[in-house]
Amino acid sequence: MDLKEIQALIKFVSTAGVDEVEINQKDFKLLIKKNPAQFTTAQYTPVAVQTAPMAVAAPTAAPAVAAPVAEAKADNLITIKSPMVGTFYRTPNPESPVFVNVGDDVKPGKVVCIIEAMKLFNEIESEISGKIVKILVDNATPVEYDQPLFLVEPA
């Protein structure tokens, strides 16, 4: 089972009326539960190694994942939303400058932030052209799937 399949299962659990999905295969066991706080968690236990289950926020896709873009709002602003559960970072590392600030212009493909999930750092790219009007999340804070990250005035 690859990461895309795991990500699809987590999305299914979060949107369907299902609270738990468990898959047992030859070399691993996957348990996805939705807890009362509406967060999705996953546990992965390799059968061959027999280690304790590791709680995981969510699976990730390959780096350079494009962020979903919401529909334009009445005030003509577009929201860039988180494509996954993880930790939001405005910089690639503590010594580097931020990817974008309020007032910066963005174009499709420009990295606007990083979301860390399962110890993988995923670059989130803009899918639209415009100007960053507001940053809705503080650096190094947890984000949920589909949580608004940036407001962009389209160009």
Break the fold down into its secondary structure elements and pairings:
Layout: H1 3-15, E1 20-24, E2 28-34, E3 40-46, E4 54-56, E5 65-66, E6 78-81, E7 86-89, E8 105-106, E9 111-117, E10 120-125, E11 130-135, E12 141-143, E13 148-154
Parallel strand pairs: 5-10
Antiparallel strand pairs: 1-2, 2-3, 3-4, 6-13, 7-9, 7-12, 8-11, 9-10, 11-13
Q: Can you describe this structure in just a few lines?
A:
By secondary structure, the chain is mostly beta strands. It folds into 2 domains: 3-56, no CATH class; 65-154, OB fold (Dihydrolipoamide Acetyltransferase, E2P).
Report on the architecture of this protein.
- This protein is mainly beta and 155 residues long.
- The chain folds into two domains: 3-56, no CATH class; 65-154, RNA polymerase II/Efflux pump adaptor protein, barrel-sandwich hybrid domain (OB fold (Dihydrolipoamide Acetyltransferase, E2P), Beta Barrel).
- Helices cover 8% and strands 41% of the residues.
- The protein has one helix spanning 3-15, and strands spanning 20-24, 28-34, 40-46, 54-56, 65-66, 78-81, 86-89, 105-106, 111-117, 120-125, 130-135, 141-143, 148-154.
- The strands form three sheets. It has a five-stranded mixed beta sheet, with no helix packed on it. The protein has a four-stranded antiparallel beta sheet with strand order 1-2-3-4.
- The radius of gyration is 17 Å and the shape is elongated.
